[in-house]
Structure formats: structure tokens, C-alpha cells
Amino acid sequence: MKLPDDLDRILDRLARRQGSSRSAVIRQALEAFAAERGWSVGALAADLAGSLEGPRDLSTSSEHMTGYGA
Description:
Blueprint: H1 5-18, H2 22-36, H3 41-44
């Protein structure tokens, strides 16, 4: 990731203060940014939920489990 010099120095300082890596600081910042907006993996994939056809839960039907396991 390329950053302007001033943001690069801030990132270094934050990582040192937290005793963590620059990557960890960036991950935390992105997580906070997403949470502030109410974004989550579930919310971002909501349009995909229920978009597939087929049995609701293959794991509970012995008919669909034939050939798996003992």
C-alpha cells in the first residue's frame, strides 16, 4: 500500500505505540471504518442469501449424504 509520507509516519507511530505491525493497524482501521457504517460480511453478501435453489440443509438428509463417511 502506498501512502503519502505524513500518513506513513503516522502509521509507523501507531504501530509502535500499540506494539503491533503496520498491517494490524490498517486492519483495525478498516474494521472500525466498516463497523461505523454498519457494514459486515453478512450485510455485504445479503443480496446473495437465498439466491440458490436446492435442498435447504443437505447435512440433515441421509439421502444427500450417501457415499460420504462410514
